[in-house]
Design goal:
Shape: globular
Number of domains: 3
Low-confidence stretches: none
Strand content: 15-25%
Structural class: alpha/beta
Number of strands: 13
Distance between the termini: 28 Å
Length: 385
């Protein structure tokens, strides 16, 4: 069992979004008192069918609950978006129960259908793959880089089980999130796109180049990336915009939400990443940025994350805009021994960002000071920012 860092308000309703397999339902069942919580599971076909046909059934069900029930959980609410109008009415008119928790593994139907998001009466929270603080002493960098952070991966008994699970996950995504939601017209070109998008994870997006690889057109490819984001399988990392004199790249990067899922979709699960290779470095960067993103959400830091890349190829992997704190420029290196030249890119931007904090995150266990650059073990570095 892993203690999740996500905390929901005990007095306010919440939307809890997260990709399939991140453990939303498990977390709620473990963290909410059983006697005070009523679960409505829309993954059960009969429940989904009856509530989709007559959403007012939920109102009658909730009003019949004993007064000891303070929380109603509606699991996978995107399967019946009209239930949100009923929830809104219960909150406004009946003021019972004390709160709703509405989970979802896809924002697509809610966003595209103009669903009632309770007019600000519910907090928006997200659950991510497991982070290092949740794994504690069980954290193993090798497992994280090969198989990602989904809870089932860390509960598995062998690497073979992890591979089987991640392959099945990739197929489940295609079958349930794409086919059932009718997010794309033709599944086979999209299947090829998924493989290419997995191989492109962490790279600057070039829709025209990807369209050539998958036999589509740039507009369709751009829409497909939107599908990945809507179904919480991926996220954009925008280019940083500033008054820096150097000409900057404007296109976003795109990351799949989990290293293991990215490797599954890219058919790379049987490829062992070796330290010192470019592939190992890409996975390490992916892992670190995912950890920063999750910590930002869990601790409600309101950081804005981006990257910086000049037209001549000088890149800063992560730029963190922190309220009331200096800008943080972060280079991520998978080396286990930091050298002076690892700080070269950061020092090139030192004059353009005289007040910024410059960080180098790596696998080197020894902290170092390289001019203005603080080189830290990556987990210590995340804590430092």
């Amino acid at each position: 069992m892993f203690h999740r860092q996500l905390q929901l308000s005990p007095h306010r309703s919440s939307f809890l979004f997260g990709a399939r397999g991140t453990g939303k339902s498990t977390h709620l069942r473990r963290s909410l008192p059983e006697s005070e919580t009523h679960f409505v599971n829309l993954l059960e076909p009969d429940t989904e069918e009856s509530l989709s046909r007559d959403p007012r059934l939920l109102e009658r069900e909730v009003l019949a609950l004993p007064t000891s029930v303070s929380t109603v959980v509606v699991d996978e609410v995107q399967k019946a978006p009209r239930l949100l109008d009923v929830v809104h009415n219960l909150i406004e008119t009946h003021r019972v129960p004390q709160r709703f928790v509405l989970t979802g593994s896809s924002a697509r139907k809610l966003r595209r259908g103009g669903a009632n998001l309770l007019a600000g009466r519910a907090s928006m929270r997200s659950l991510f793959p497991l982070v290092t603080g949740e794994l504690g002493s069980d954290f193993d960098e090798s497992i994280a880089l090969r198989f990602g952070g989904l809870p089932t991966v860390w509960n598995a008994h062998s690497d073979a089980d992890r591979i089987d699970y991640l392959r099945a996950y990739a197929q489940t995504y295609l079958r349930e999130e794409i086919r059932l939601e009718q997010a794309v017209r033709r599944i086979e070109p999209f299947r090829r796109f998924l493989e290419v998008s997995a191989q492109s994870s962490g790279k600057v997006l070039n829709y025209a180049s990807i369209a050539r690889d998958v036999g589509g057109d740039p507009k369709t490819v751009e829409a497909w990336f939107g599908v990945l984001e809507d179904t919480l399988i991926g996220y954009h990392l925008d280019a940083y915009h500033s008054s820096v004199r150097k000409q900057l790249q404007k296109a976003p990067k795109f990351y799949l939400f989990d290293v293991g899922v990215a490797r599954a979709l890219g058919f790379m699960l049987n490829v062992t990443p070796h330290p010192g290779t470019a592939y190992f470095g890409e996975l390490f960067e992916h892992l670190v940025i995912g950890e920063v993103r999750a910590r930002n959400a869990y601790e409600e830091r309101d950081w804005r994350l981006s990257y910086l890349l000049t037209k001549d190829g000088v890149e800063i992997d992560l730029v963190v805009q922190r309220p009331a704190q200096p800008l943080a420029l972060i280079e991520i290196k998978s080396a286990d021994l930091v050298r002076d030249d690892h700080a070269t890119n950061l020092l090139r931007f030192a004059d353009d960002f005289p007040d910024a904090d410059l960080f180098l995150f790596s696998r080197d266990p020894r902290p170092k000071q390289l001019g203005r650059v603080r080189a830290l073990p990556w987990r210590d570095g995340i804590q430092a920012i």
